Amino acid sequence: ALRPPAARTGNLPVPPVAILGRAADLATLRALLASERLVTLTGPGGVGKTRLALHAAWAVRDAFHHDVVFIPLADVNSYDWLVRRVARAMALRSFDTQISEQSLFEELRERTMLLVLDNLEQIEEAGQFLARLVEVAPGVKLLVTSRIAMHIRGEAEIPLAPLTVPKTDLYHAPNLDDLEKSSAVMLLRERAQAVNPSFELTPENAADIVRICERLDGLPLALELAAARLKMLTPAALL
Fold first, then answer.
1. CA torsion angle 217 175 209 168 (round to 10)
2. What are the residues whose beta carbons fall under 8 Å from the beta carbon of 25, sequence distance 6 or more?
3. Which residue stretches of the chain have pLDDT < 50?
4. I need a labelling partner for 93 at 20 to 30 A (CA). Which of 17, 50, 80, 192 fits?
5. Rounded Cα–Cα distance for residues 131 and 127 (Å)
């Protein structure tokens, strides 16, 4: 038998940094969380699904009286462990070593909360779990991040694209004003300045910065890892 928590179980981590180039995605995600039961953020690894999900969850947490639970699942690959991880994140306890699906759903049946399930794509029966949860717990909303959609009834999917990268022109140097409109370039500059405050985007290094963003396909995680190298390397050397 499960012992229900004495108070709300919100455990939402604070997003580490602000996000760039995602204002429209964030607005769409907030709107869907207000109207839908299950919202899935999809996209390739490193595109920023987790960070966007955290920002959205923080933005809507008041609607759930801060009862928002974040559950990382990258290291989970079975249905049983999915059930256990959700129960553990909600601070539920059992008198034996097994936490049953039925007991977990009984606890969730009367709850009004948001569950953020991060990195769900590797669990083959994840869709079955979500479909059952949507059916039995009408007050629970689900925000899922996954490289693929769950393909269950009622799912609202938001495919997350990489950040915008300016087009290169071999015959003309990039215009700095145009680069200010590129979320990939702005992310690289911001993160580079975090480790090297003297770093600037200049006419001399602009072309190299654009090519770095191109080679990294505008993926936020890759851009952040590259930016850390700009503490010691010039853009040309990094390229």
1. 40
2. 52, 158, 160
3. 1-8, 95-96
4. 50
5. 6
